């Protein structure tokens, strides 16, 4: 939804940006006449959106595109064949196939129910609003072309009169938009454009059906790549030939090569056989303005991000600095996200408040901004020089730049599962099982709103499922997953108030509190605090035990006070700045390990161990005794193993 909104905002912004680049006053006037008629546009688009929502609720197939209707017809024909086979098998006394066909029909009926399709139907209405808004702007551009061809003055009244007639002609008898140019622009914004790249991925999935659970939305994913390419900063060249032609070919060259002009217009759905030379040229210049505007916006934002990164590197105040997708060091990255208010793809505002930009900028621009920030984060680390692990860093940056709007690469689960990652495999299986039930996404979202904060859970499918259905824990407190508690502050990071969780769930401008001074120092010095209470003397602790120990460690504030003391030592020694300068001179981690430099990490590790011991000694006696008993049993069994004896029978660890 927010992608559509940001795409609609980008339409006039990029158009005016491109017109300003080459000082085209005529284009500025055309753009103002087309995009300033907000009330006229909404009087047409809002009722149309309502009609499409109602139509989708009554009959979902009625609002599908022609290609999807063809697919529906094929599916119905195939279902008739299944019914015939099922009846034949049932007549022979084999009713299993008939039972399966009946189950399939019931699931299809459930999928078409307006209650279960509320969210998809709302998106259908929103897509219709987007299409009608674009249609009215396009109708106004064509009205101005017609007035120019007639030699009449372009007045608001005449433009509105001709545009209304043109707008009405864009719809078919079924009430759906049939104008191909408008449908192209709508698909462009909605990430539904059927490009050659998306067709190739679709063919791959048809060839290898096993990829379907990993590439669930191939068209959207490939369109994310395309939009990022559209905003490729100048003077870099796009992999799309049409974009290169529009951005770097002069209008005079187009006039001298009308076949190139017609090819571009046809690709974007314009009926060139019904357009005169004036309309063709005006439409091409409009497309050129939008293309140049996208390049200009991409260049401007990329320059701004580079500027904030350089400012932060030079002054270290952090104000307006931008984060990408985190660190290539996954353990360090997980520790930051879990134990502090670090947020990927965010801008740091006054007071350290973090504001996410992913949904505000949309998939194309946000990927570019994140890519620049990822380069800065991963090639300017304290822990290693820029040249170390360069391949892993570049792979991470490339994968992050090609993520879907959720920020997770579609192929990443496949790679992790195939590489034997047990956690990734359990997470994948839990996700597939969870999706078998209705409203999987809504259950996950509402659970995170009602029961805030990240959850601490063990690596098994049952607890992975519980993490995706946190609402159940509110009803059944005995099976409620414990909330992650920071061992530094003793509070739950990422939890916030209920009102703020509701705001972040429904708003594109998601706001998060600042880190504490201690958390910020650990972030800057790249210290991984997630090792706290991972196990004790070789015995794995449960999530509830880790939760209680972290809470006690934070409540005692010993570790926080030690961090504050060590941070002052690091500041007095200028440790962070000196280490940065060494890394920029390509002094690697083998020569100067961050774990030993200036003994800062060593002091932090000692302070953490002392704080862990104090917290364990102060733990509730019943829980502490249970842990000590498991440790004692483990020691006994280790001794028995050395003696060639079987372990003591127990189910306690």
Report on the structure:
By secondary structure, the chain is an all-alpha fold. It is built from 29 helices and five strands. Strands 1-2-3 form a three-stranded antiparallel beta sheet. A hairpin with a 2-residue loop joins strand 4 and strand 5. The relative contact order is 0.07.
Furnish the topology, listing elements before pairings:
Layout: H1 2-21, H2 25-35, H3 38-58, H4 66-91, H5 96-112, H6 118-150, H7 156-169, H8 180-190, H9 196-207, H10 218-230, H11 241-248, H12 251-256, H13 258-267, H14 277-315, H15 330-339, E1 346-348, E2 354-356, H16 358-378, H17 390-401, H18 412-418, H19 422-435, H20 440-450, H21 461-468, H22 470-475, H23 498-506, E3 511-512, H24 517-525, E4 535-536, E5 539-540, H25 543-556, H26 558-573, H27 575-584, H28 600-617, H29 621-642
Antiparallel strand pairs: 1-2, 2-3, 4-5
Helix pairs in contact: 1-2, 1-14, 1-16, 2-6, 3-6, 4-5, 6-7, 6-8, 6-14, 9-10, 10-16, 13-14, 14-16, 16-17, 19-21, 20-23, 24-26, 25-28, 26-28
């Amino acid at each position: 939804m927010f992608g559509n909104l940001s795409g609609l905002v980008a339409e006039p912004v990029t158009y005016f940006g491109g017109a300003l680049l080459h000082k085209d006053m005529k284009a500025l006037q055309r753009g103002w006449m087309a995009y300033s008629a907000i009330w006229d546009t909404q009087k047409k688009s809002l009722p149309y959106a309502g009609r499409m929502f109602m139509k989708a609720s009554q009959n979902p197939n009625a609002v599908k595109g022609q290609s999807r209707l063809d697919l529906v017809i094929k599916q119905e024909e195939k279902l008739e064949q299944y019914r015939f086979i099922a009846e034949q098998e049932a007549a022979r006394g084999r009713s299993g196939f008939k039972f399966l066909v009946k189950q399939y029909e019931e699931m299809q009926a459930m999928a078409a129910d307006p209650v279960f399709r509320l969210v998809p139907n709302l998106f259908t209405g929103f897509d219709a609003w987007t299409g009608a808004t674009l249609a009215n702007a396009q109708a106004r551009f064509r009205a101005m072309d017609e007035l120019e061809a007639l030699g009449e003055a372009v007045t608001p009244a005449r433009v509105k009169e001709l545009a209304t007639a043109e707008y009405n002609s864009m719809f078919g008898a079924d009430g759906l938009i049939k104008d191909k140019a408008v449908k192209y622009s709508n698909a462009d914004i909605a990430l539904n454009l059927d490009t050659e790249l998306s067709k190739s991925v679709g063919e791959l999935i048809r060839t290898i059906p096993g990829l379907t659970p990993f590439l669930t939305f191939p068209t959207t994913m490939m369109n994310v790549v395309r939009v990022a390419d559209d905003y490729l900063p100048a003077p870099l060249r796009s992999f799309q030939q049409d974009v290169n032609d529009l951005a770097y070919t002069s209008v005079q060259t187009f006039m001298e090569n009308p076949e190139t002009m017609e090819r571009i217009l046809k690709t974007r759905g314009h009926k060139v056989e019904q357009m005169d030379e004036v309309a063709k040229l005006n439409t091409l210049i409009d497309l050129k303005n939008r293309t140049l505007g996208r390049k200009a916006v991409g260049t401007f934002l990329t320059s701004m991000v580079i500027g904030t990164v350089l400012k932060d590197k030079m002054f270290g105040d952090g104000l307006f600095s931008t984060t990408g997708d985190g660190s290539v060091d996954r353990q360090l990255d997980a520790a930051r996200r879990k134990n502090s208010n670090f947020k990927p793809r965010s801008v740091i505002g006054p007071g350290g408040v973090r504001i996410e930009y992913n949904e505000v900028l949309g998939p194309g621009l946000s990927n570019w901004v994140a890519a620049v920030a990822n380069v800065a984060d991963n090639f300017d680390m304290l822990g290693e020089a820029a040249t170390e692990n360069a391949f892993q860093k570049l792979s991470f940056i490339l994968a992050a730049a090609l993520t879907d709007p959720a920020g997770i690469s579609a192929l990443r689960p496949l790679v992790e599962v195939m590489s034997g990652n047990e956690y990734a495999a359990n997470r994948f299986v839990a996700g597939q099982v969870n999706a078998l039930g209705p409203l999987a996404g809504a259950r996950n979202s509402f659970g995170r709103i009602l029961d805030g904060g990240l959850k601490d859970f063990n690596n098994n499918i049952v607890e992975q499922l519980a993490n995706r259905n946190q609402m159940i824990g509110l009803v059944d407190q005995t099976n409620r997953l414990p909330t992650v508690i920071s061992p530094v502050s003793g509070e739950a990071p990422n939890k916030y108030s209920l009102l703020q969780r509701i705001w972040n769930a429904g708003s594109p401008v998601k706001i998060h509190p600042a880190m504490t001074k201690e958390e910020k120092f650990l972030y800057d010095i790249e210290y991984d605090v997630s090792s706290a209470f991972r196990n004790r003397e070789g015995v794995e602790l449960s999530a509830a035990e880790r939760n209680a120990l972290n809470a006690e460690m934070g409540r005692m504030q010993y570790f926080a006070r030690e961090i504050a003391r060590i941070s002052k030592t690091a500041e007095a020694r200028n440790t962070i700045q000196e280490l940065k300068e060494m890394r920029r001179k390509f002094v690697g981690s083998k020569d100067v390990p961050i774990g030993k430099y200036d003994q800062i990490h060593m002091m932090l590790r000692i302070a953490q161990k002392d704080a862990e011991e104090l917290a364990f000694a102060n733990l509730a006696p019943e829980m502490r005794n249970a842990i000590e008993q498991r440790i004692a049993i483990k020691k006994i069994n280790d001794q028995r193993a050395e003696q060639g004896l079987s372990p003591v029978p127990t189910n306690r660890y």
